[in-house]
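Late entry, written up from scratch paper. The run itself happened at the end of the previous shift, but nothing got recorded in the book at the time, so transcribing now.
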Amino acid sequence: MSFSLNNIYEANQRIIIWLILIGLLWILNDFFGLIFMTFVLAFIATPLIRTGQSKLRLPYRLSLTLVYILFLIVLGSFVRYVTPSVIGEANRFLDNFNEVQLKLIELERNIVGKYPGIERSLHGYMRSLLDENTLRNIDGELNAFKQRIRLASDVDPEHVTDIDDITEVTRMKLKKYYDREAELLMNSLVTKQVGKISEHLPRLINHFYQTTGTILLALLFSFLILFDSVRLSSLMKSLHNSRLRDFYQETAQPVIRFAYVVGRAIQAQAMIACVNTFLTLIGLIALGIPSVALLSLIVFVCSFIPVLGVFISTTPMVLVALNTGGLTLAIAVVVMITVIHIIEAYGLNPLIYGKHLKLNPVLVLIILLVAYHTFGLWGMILGVPVAYYFFNYVFWCARMG
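Output as recorded:
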């Protein structure tokens, strides 16, 4: 039997076609964010356009144009009002930086005053977070301070076991030594964290501009696709009678089904964003945080960004809390956000995703955990719809076949 490419293709047609499709997706992986955002915006815009047609009796293209003008207004308002607010709070935080350090030191002293037994453990933990050079500098300053307060050379602050065995004068000097140590350690830790923020800030700004550019391009592409949807639909159907008919017949229906599943996942995420925003709004009002409307808007928008959105939305809230009520209020905000996102991760996500995609909530939770640890951000976004598609279409078709 002679070798023939046609025979090989006929025998392995389905495998070859799907390998080609996967290869194309791999080649376009750098544009995956743009492709996904274009799909999301088109999916969100479609029902709004139909509402304009049915309720307002508008022509299709006029309704489409008004919807995308609304999108641009929302995006422009977010950039115009939210970004300056975050920058302003960050500047206020930097202006009050010395005050924040003093509040941290005061908080440490209050904790040690109530629970004196944890002082050495707390200082040891803070030391474990610092590098060797910083610790050498701190120890050098502490030795100099020890000589200034004339603490006896035979008294080792690191190995004082029974404070009752020392004189009152030595006890007071030890307290001064420990307070100075706490001050130096706290200042070094705060300076280290601020240095990390300064190091990563240019990268975050770059990501912000890249994301904004991607959204603008996705708005343009989705608008053009929907504007000429009738002709594009006819063009796609014409592939049925072209040389690509095998490719079209094999992939058209699965791709459409998968797009529908992803659309349902987006609807579920929108519901989660609404509930998450509502819970955050209640928490902010209860804690007395100002600018609740602005902060709630940031939370709603960032709820569509898995994992990273939590940190993006938390930053302005913590800054506002620090500038308004100090460290205690900032810690309360972090606790509130942690509780809300535990509810979201282990309650809302499984229940709402499960209801929309008809999956068991426990299974949804397992899929989210595995997808995040395996594929990161894209795993969180597409893990559930991909798993649903495989469970309900690929495996089902394989069983039927």
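The longest helix spans residues 168-227.
(Scratch paper discarded after transcription.)
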